[in-house]
Write a structure and sequence with these properties.
This protein is an alpha/beta fold. The protein folds into three domains: 179 residues, NAD(P)-binding Rossmann-like Domain (Rossmann fold); 99 residues, N-(1-d-carboxylethyl)-l-norvaline Dehydrogenase, domain 2 (Orthogonal Bundle), CATH 1.10.1040; 104 residues, 3-Layer(aba) Sandwich (Rossmann fold), CATH 3.40.50. An eight-stranded mixed sheet has the order 3-2-1-4-5-6-7-8. It has a five-stranded mixed sheet with strand order 11-12-13-14-15, with helices on both faces. Strands 9-10 form a two-stranded antiparallel ribbon. Helix 1 crosses helix 2 and helix 18 packs across helix 19. Bound molecules: 1,4-dihydronicotinamide adenine dinucleotide (NAI). The site of 1,4-dihydronicotinamide adenine dinucleotide has 23 residues, from helix 1 and helix 4.
C-alpha cells in the first residue's frame, strides 16, 4: 500500500506518543520518536518491542510481523533529525506556550511540505498555529488513550488550515486503521464536548440528594444500557483528568450552563479521591474491585392497595398492561378511591408538580419513569414526593418488583435519572450539530467509538423519541428554572415536527 506519509515523526513519547508510534509502525510507515527526555523515547520504543513480542507469544501476530514493526520504529536524539519526516505529530505536555515554541522550532527544521499536527485534547488549533509562518499546514489530530484500542481520531482544521491538509490526514487515519471524523476547532472538539452530558448531569442528580452514586450508576446501566455508570467511569478515568476537562470546556464556552461542572467533583478532587488508581474515588477499591453496598431489600407488604393510574401518564397503555401482568388490582374510576396507590408517569416534571396540577393526594402519589419501554429495561425507577407515605412507597416498590425485576426508589426530581441524563446528552449532541462542529454521522461515530455509549447520542434521542426528549427538557426547564435545560434549536425543531434526529437537511 502506498502511504500518504511514509515517515512520521512523533514528538513526545509518553502514553499517547507511544500509542501513535505503535499504529504508525503497524501500518508499515516509519515512526521516529523524539522526546526532550531521551530516556522516555527509548522506553517507549522498548515498550513497543516488548508489546509485539507478547503478541507473538499469544499468536496474535507472526514473529516476522514483530520484526518488521520493530524496524519501523526509531528514536531521534535531537529535533534536527526529524527533517526528512513528511508528518510530525506532537504529543507533548498540554501547554500552549510549550507547544507553540516546539512548532516554531520545527518550522526551522522541516520543509514547508511537511504537515504539522497536534494531538492536543483541549487547546485551540487556531491558537497553536497562530504564530507559525505556515499555519495552513498545521492541524489537530486528536487520538484517544489507549491509541491502538480506541479506533477513532478527530481531524481538526484550524481557521487557517488548508482543506487539502485535512483531507490528506483524514485519509491517512483510515490507512492507520482508525475511523477519522472531521471536527471544527471548538472547545472539546467532538468527543470531549459530547461527553459533558453524562457525568455532569449525573453529578447534579447526586448533588440534589435524589439518589446516591451507586444507585445512579445502576439506573443508567440497567435502564439506558450504558456499559459503565458515570461514577464508575469517572473513577476509571480519574477525577484529576475529568474535572479539569469539565472546567476547561465550561470556561471556554463562557460559562454555558449546559456544561457547568459540579462542586462535588471539585471537592473530591481536592481531597485526593481521584479514583481507582489511588484506591478511592466515588467508590472504595479493594484488590481493584469497587466496594458497593447491597441494594435495599424489597419491602414485604402483606396486602397491596388498589392502583389508580393518572390519565396523563406517559406510555399509559403499557403501564396498565404491566400492572395487569403484575397482578395489581387496577381502579378505572375518574379519580382514585380513598385507599388507592396513585401512579403518575411524568416526562420532565417532578411528581410533586404533577400531584398538585392533577389534584391528587400527594401522600398516596408515587411516580414511575416510563420514558423507556419496560420490556427493554432491566430496572424500574420509582420516585416519591416529600409527602408520600412510607406504606404507599413500600407498596409501589413491592408491586413493581413482583416479577423479579430490579426496582430503585429515588427522591422526587424533574425528569427522574435516565430522563435527565439522556435528555442532557441528546441536547448537547444536538447543539454540536446546531453549531456545525461536525456532521451528525461523524458525531455518532465519534461518540460510539470514543465514549463507548450504547448508541450515538442522536440515535439515543431517536430511540426515546425526539418529541419525548424535547418534552423532558421543556418541563425540566420549568421545574428548575435553569437555562441549562433549554433545548437546542436543532432538537427543538426536529422534536417539534417529530423528525428523526439523524435526518440531514437537503
Ligand atoms: P505524557 O505526560 O504521558 O507524555 C508527554 C511526553 O512529552 C513526556 O515524555 C515529556 O517528556 C515529553 N515532552 C514534554 N515537553 C516536551 C517538549 N517540549 N519536546 C519534546 N518532548 C516533550 O502525556 P500524554 O498523556 O501522552 O499526553 C500528550 C498529549 O496528548 C497532551 O497534549 C494531551 O493533552 C494529549 N492527549 C492525551 C490523552 C490521554 O488520555 N493521556 C488523550 C488525548 C490527547
Amino acid at each position: 500500500m502506498t502511504h500518504l506519509f511514509q515517515s512520521v515523526a512523533i514528538v513526545g513519547a509518553g502514553a499517547m506518543g507511544q500509542g501513535i508510534a505503535q499504529i504508525v509502525a503497524q501500518s508499515d510507515c516509519h515512526a521516529v520518536l523524539y522526546d526532550v527526555q531521551r530516556a522516555a523515547a527509548d522506553t517507549a520504543r522498548n515498550n513497543l518491542l516488548a508489546l509485539w513480542q507478547g503478541q507473538v507469544k499469544k499468536g496474535r501476530i507472526s514473529a516476522q510481523d514483530a520484526e518488521r514493526f520493530a524496524t519501523r520504529v526509531s528514536v531521534a536524539g535531537d529535533l534536527a533529525q526529524l527533517q526528512p519526516c513528511e508528518l510530525v505529530v506532537e504529543a507533548i505536555v498540554e501547554r500552549l506556550d510549550v507547544k507553540v515554541s516546539l512548532f516554531k522550532q520545527l518550522e526551522g527544521i522541516v520543509p514547508t511540505s511537511t504537515v504539522l499536527a497536534s494531538n492536543t485534547s483541549s487547546l485551540s488549533i487556531a491558537a497553536i498555529g497562530a504564530g507559525l509562518a505556515h499555519p495552513e499546514r498545521f492541524i489537530g489530530f486528536h487520538f484517544f488513550n489507549p491509541v491502538a484500542l480506541m479506533k477513532v481520531v478527530e481531524v481538526i482544521a484550524g481557521l487557517r488550515t488548508a482543506p487539502e491538509v485535512a483531507t490528506r490526514l483524514f485519509n491517512f487515519a483510515q490507512q492507520l486503521g482508525h475511523t477519522a471524523v472531521m471536527a471544527k476547532d471548538s472547545p472539546g472538539f467532538i468527543v470531549n464536548h459530547a461527553g459533558r452530558g453524562y457525568g455532569t448531569e449525573a453529578l447534579r442528580v447526586v448533588s440534589e440528594g435524589i439518589a446516591d452514586f451507586a444507585t445512579v450508576d445502576r439506573i443508567l446501566r440497567d435502564q439506558a444500557g450504558f456499559k459503565m455508570g458515570p461514577f464508575e467511569l469517572m473513577d476509571l478515568t480519574g477525577l484529576d483528568v475529568s474535572q479539569p476537562v469539565m472546567e476547561s470546556i465550561y470556561q471556554q464556552f463562557y460559562d454555558e450552563p449546559r456544561y457547568r461542572p459540579s462542586a462535588i467533583a471539585a471537592q473530591r478532587l481536592a481531597a485526593g479521591l481521584t479514583g481507582r488508581k489511588v484506591g478511592e474515588g466515588f467508590y472504595r477499591y479493594l484488590d481493584g474491585k469497587a466496594q458497593v453496598a447491597d441494594e435495599p431489600p424489597v419491602p414485604v407488604v402483606e396486602t397491596l392497595p388498589p392502583v389508580w393510574v393518572s390519565p396523563r401518564a406517559a406510555r399509559r397503555v403499557e403501564l396498565l398492561l404491566l400492572l395487569k401482568n403484575l397482578g395489581a388490582q387496577i381502579e378505572t374510576g375518574q379519580s382514585p378511591s380513598p385507599h388507592a396507590l396513585t401512579l403518575v408517569a411524568p416526562l420532565g416534571f417532578d411528581v410533586t408538580t404533577v400531584a398538585v396540577v392533577e389534584r391528587l393526594d400527594p401522600a398516596r402519589t408515587v411516580g414511575i419513569d416510563m420514558l423507556i419501554d419496560d420490556a427493554t429495561t432491566k430496572r424500574r425507577v420509582l420516585a416519591t414526593n416529600p409527602a408520600t407515605r412510607s406504606d404507599m412507597r413500600d407498596a409501589a416498590h413491592a408491586l413493581f418488583a413482583r416479577d423479579g425485576k430490579a426496582v430503585s426508589v429515588i427522591r422526587d426530581s424533574g425528569g427522574f435519572v435516565t430522563q435527565r441524563v439522556v435528555a442532557h446528552i441528546v441536547n448537547i449532541a444536538s447543539d454540536i450539530c446546531q453549531q456545525g462542529i461536525c456532521s451528525p454521522g461523524d458525531l455518532e461515530k465519534a461518540v460510539t467509538l470514543g465514549l463507548g455509549y450504547p448508541q450515538g447520542p442522536l440515535a439515543m434521542g431517536n430511540l426515546y423519541g425526539p418529541t419525548n426528549v424535547l418534552e423532558v427538557l421543556f418541563n425540566m426547564q420549568t421545574v428548575y428554572g435553569d437555562t441549562r435545560y433549554r433545548p437546542s434549536p436543532w432538537l427543538r425543531r426536529r422534536g417539534a415536527i417529530g423528525l428523526s434526529l439523524l435526518h440531514e437537511e437537503a
